[in-house]
Amino acid sequence: MEWYPWLNAPYRQLVAQHQAGRGHHAVLLHALPGMGEASLAWALSRWLMCRQTDGFKSCGVCHDCRLMEAGNHPDWYSLTPEKGRHSLGVDQIREVLDKLYQRSRQGGAKVVWLPLSEQLTEAAANALLKTLEEPPENTWFLLGCREPTRLLATLRSRCLHCYLAAPDEARSIQWLNSRHPGDGTMQRTALRLHAGAPLAAESMLLPARWQQRTELCQALAAALAQQNFLPLIAQLNHDDVGERLHWLATLLVDGLKWQQHAQAFLVNQDQQALAERLATSHTADALQQAVQQWLTCRHRLLTIAGINRELLLTGQLLNWEQSLIAGAVCPAHTV
């Protein structure tokens, strides 16, 4: 599994705790998408499994290391939802927990990795909680997490909270350039669109994905010029609507930043002309209202099962257009 430089510090910190005899039996790895926490969990698991560690390194040659490298260590459990499901059920959890109370198959440590612990059903979380309260000897739990508040408070309280902070922008741009040399403005924009998470920014910079965002920006510029927002439906009505609405919301917030002369803090550094157009065509109140409405729309689309996506988007676009025509925003200026 690939390793990333920003994981060095948290890895050394977690291993040092174990070396000092203070290693926590359950670690909650709280990270944004695109931070590579799976690589951290894998490296820590290898160190815990290794029979002849060398400082912060696993040896790579013992039988346990070789099994981990081959991806078939019998005492390492990775729990993900069954095919076609979006949650981890109690039966899956109980099946693994039963094995944890048995003797380790290789005679060493046992490690459980849950990439997205928010996927636990309430029953599964409660089953896991009982084991976390009285864990078997030499057994370790690593829980990945995007939003800790979605977990049971009692489950969170049994874990050591480890937040993986995004590296600073300069270091991330340097890392992106080491892999795919490119335009600094684009790289900065991709990072800011994903709160600094380097792997998410790297995916954003893929030509096909970047083109999709560019087309949305172009469609928004045309909508503002013509005061006709309905054509935006073609850019928004896709399965990845959550991310597309995130792009739209950041552009609206950039309009607010432009009004406050905070151009250096724009998320969309490559779309400054569009940010200025939004700033000069809308009042601050209108921009704030639009941001709130689009975020509410996004939340509904992501949380309400079976919702009519096209109908909701169309209604929101019509509301935005009507507010413009009714004078809730200033007449558009020429940029």
Automatic annotation (TrEMBL):
GO molecular function list: 3'-5' exonuclease activity; DNA binding; DNA-directed DNA polymerase activity
Q: Which domain of life is it from?
A: Bacteria
Q: What general EC class does the enzyme of this chain belong to?
A: transferase
Please report a single Pfam family linked to this protein. DNApol3-delta_C
Supply the alphabetized keyword list. Answer: DNA replication, DNA-directed DNA polymerase, Nucleotidyltransferase, Transferase
> What EC number is given for this enzyme?
2.7.7.7
For this chain's UniProt record, which GO biological process terms are given?
Answer: DNA-templated DNA replication
Can you quote a single GO CC term? Answer: DNA polymerase III complex
Q: Which residues form the DNA polymerase III delta subunit C-terminal domain?
A: 208-322
DNA polymerase III subunit delta' AAA+ ATPase lid domain span: 167-205
UniProt catalytic activity: DNA(n) + a 2'-deoxyribonucleoside 5'-triphosphate = DNA(n+1) + diphosphate
Transferase is among the record's keywords: yes
NCBIfam families noted in UniProt? holB, PRK07993.1
Output this protein's name: DNA polymerase III subunit delta'
Q: What lineage is this protein's organism placed in?
A: Bacteria, Pseudomonadati, Pseudomonadota, Gammaproteobacteria, Enterobacterales
